[in-house]
Specification:
Strand content: 25-35%
Strand order of the largest sheet: 4-5-6-7-8
Low-confidence stretches: none
Number of helices: 5
Number of strands: 8
């Protein structure tokens, strides 16, 4: 059984700690030049926006709870939803791969008209890093929807969005290589 500890952002499968997709791919993106306070503020904005999107998809959002600091990002979500016709299948779904031994939280899985099944990772960042391709591929593999079209939905503070496709077929291979390196480093404590 998969368990998630929000305080430590860790996943356990049958009481055994397993690496997260975020941990595994952390080695692919250098964020060291971004000040810690900026990273923490953006992390909080992302957390709030993800929670609001999930509530919105379940028609359970109290709109008075939307904070001024992240209202624009949420409006970008609403604009995307209205313009794209996205129909949700899953939101904020915890996933685990018994084959590869990792876990994570898939943001959105659903249908986009004319495109079919779509796995979407929402981002409240100024830059979409290349690691989002391997990230979405890892979620797709763990959830059993590796054939779904994958996207990064970049929500912007001005209420707009960009939908970035992740079509690279080598993305899961990149993730698997990162997982191998992550496990090797853990084994040798380096």
């Amino acid at each position: 059984m998969l368990k998630f500890d929000a305080a430590t952002h860790t996943y356990h499968w049958n009481d055994r700690l397993v690496p997260s997709v975020t941990q595994i791919l952390g080695q692919l993106t250098d964020l060291s030049k971004i000040p810690r306070d900026v990273l923490e503020r953006k992390r909080l904005i992302g957390t709030w926006v993800h929670a609001a999107i999930e509530l919105d998809l379940h028609d359970d959002l109290d709109e008075s709870s939307i904070g001024e600091e992240w209202a624009g990002y949420f409006q970008g979500w609403r604009k995307f939803r209205a313009e794209s016709g996205f129909v949700m299948q899953d939101a904020e779904q915890r996933v685990y791969s018994p084959k590869y031994g990792y876990a994570g939280t898939l943001d959105l899985l659903g249908t986009l008209p004319k495109l079919g099944q779509a796995l979407i990772d929402t981002k409240c960042t100024a830059t979409i890093y290349p690691a989002v391709g391997p990230q979405t591929a890892a979620y797709g593999e763990a959830h059993g929807v590796s054939k779904a079209k994958r996207f990064a939905l970049q929500l912007k503070p001005n209420g707009t969005y960009n939908l970035h496709p992740c079509p690279d077929r080598s993305d899961f291979g990149v993730f698997a290589a990162a997982l191998t390196l992550f496990n090797w480093r853990a084994k040798w404590k380096c």
